[in-house]
Amino acid sequence: MTASNPAALAASRELVIDGRPLRVFDGHLPNVGDYVRGLSRAAFTRTEIARPDTADYRHWATEVKIEALLQQPIFEVTRRAVLGFSNAEHAYRPYRAYTNVASYGDMLFTHTDCLPDQHDLTALWYLCERWDLEWGGETMFFDAQDEVACAVQPRPGRLVIFDGAIKHVGRPPNRICYAPRYTFAIKFERVPAPRG
Asked: Where is the Prolyl 4-hydroxylase alpha subunit domain (predicted)?
């Protein structure tokens, strides 16, 4: 199912939820510890909301300017993974990047990242040096009947890329987890493919 572009990264897992793609990539970010240490010093603000009706329940985030993102090695890996979603008619361009942090007791809500006809992509990195299965923190993806279609657990340097119209939610860590759950999101909009 991955596009035949030789520069595209191969996914370790691929699913389709209601006709919309979701792919998981593992083992492409060897320096994940550098990102985790940087995030431990970052200035997070409680400004992010899942949906307008949950605006009273904000969660922690820190923004990354697109100009800075384009200079980061993590973006080159992400770009190569996104190539597998492009074709002769359309490509993708980043328009927003930010990191969320969640801890035990935080409340996160289901949401979508774009309207159904936009076909934007969300690239979500799990930035942790280790993660225990018992810590929870999965990202749950739902089908059109609000049934769980897929759960992706955090793993060091794991990347999941999905159509932003798939309803999803990041679950906060369980009580026994004292590590922050960092997820670095890069949002991509679909644009016409370059000609030539």
From this structure: 20-189
